[in-house]
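Quick one, tokens below:
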């Protein structure tokens, strides 16, 4: 997930850590919708655009994707 945030969204690599929130990375609602679409394509899992929120941590988003990958 961190690599995706850096490569696709230009998030600073030194700021993308597990506990950082999308709000702290200055992701607005449009960026979160785009993240959901990119995650679906990159990881091959269903992610509803409302499942990523500004208060959510990078680690929380990674756990969500990992759980979906494990279930498929």
């Amino acid at each position: 997930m961190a690599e995706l945030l850096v490569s696709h969204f230009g998030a600073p690599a030194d700021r993308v850590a597990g506990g950082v929130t999308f709000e702290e990375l200055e992701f607005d609602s449009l960026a979160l919708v785009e993240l959901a679409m990119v995650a679906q394509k990159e990881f091959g899992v269903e992610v509803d655009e409302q499942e990523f929120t500004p208060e959510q941590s990078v680690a929380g988003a990674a756990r969500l994707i990992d759980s979906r990958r494990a279930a498929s």
